[in-house]
Amino acid sequence: MRVLSKKKPPRERTRGEAYDHLWRTHILQSIIRGWGEVGCTTTGISSLAGGTRVSKVQTAVPCAGSRPSIDSADRGSELPTMAQPHTASAHQRVLMTWAPCLLVLLVGACRSTVSQTPTPDAAQAPHAHGAAAGSASTAIEAKPTRTNRDPHGNPDVERYIDMLQSTGRLETLQIPLVIERLAIAPDAIVGDLGCGPGNFALAFATAAPRGVVYASDVEPAQLDALRAKIAGDSAPNIIPVLASFDDPHFPPGRMDLVFIGDTYHHLQDRVAYMRRLKACLASGGKLAILDYKPGDLPIGPPRAHKLEAGVMERELVEAGWTRVAKHDTHPWHDFEVWTPGEQR
After folding, report:
1. Is CATH 3.40.50.150 what the domain over 157-340 is classified as, yes or no?
2. Where in the chain is the domain with CATH 3.40.50.150?
3. Which end of the chain is more exposed for a tag (fewer CB within 10 A), N or C?
């Protein structure tokens, strides 16, 4: 059975469209009458509050073959009143010849004014597709700043990423020394929890060329920065993972090493988080934590942003972890290794 589609109701004309239609109608009448009639006079156009319409037009009786006037309902004006026939004078013949040309010029000016007037829809949606584009500087100023999903980081995520991978910070992390102390196997499966722009993830991938590195972070922009580095360094064994606030989404029972660099103090409900994290480790798997030392330091976050002395150790013990190594390699960081099990 053939289904007939419903016709859409006609769209209501805007004020500019109605104004344009009105002028077009008047021009058409003037041209037709100018060619087919003896004479033509007009009384003008009036502008009324709440809308614009053509006032009464006084014309001569049309000759045979001339067209009737357009219905007033179509052009929003009153019906023309007919005058008595008369003989056209020289002035009337000049007016009959040049009036249509003058009206065409007037219509062009009116249409230009209407097109430059912003509509209410355009005013309410300045960024909609198809809207007139402003200057390049205005477009740049209108670009919103990306907000950091991590509530503990700088709200301006672009600046935060730049700080995380700055040369000064990378020197304090001593990444090659961390890789050396962890003694990562070439086929190890590593989880970088809170990977940021990938400072450690790239080093883990190099240390374990036959392994896999799961780089996890809650902020998509951090993962975008990591992906850009992966493309440049051709590191196929790094898998970016978008984390939840309560789960890094590592594959269960597979990780030989989970590394948390400058992120432990960012975690929420840390005891419950660290209990769940044990399920990610493979047999013999380890947890390595590198985090800023407590107290006031010349580098890193302010004291209020960090944990007080002894808090991390108490939480990990409560979560069921045992510390197996503590490396005094970093002046501004604590560097420790933990395994699942009770405290000895």
Report:
1. yes
2. 157-340
3. N
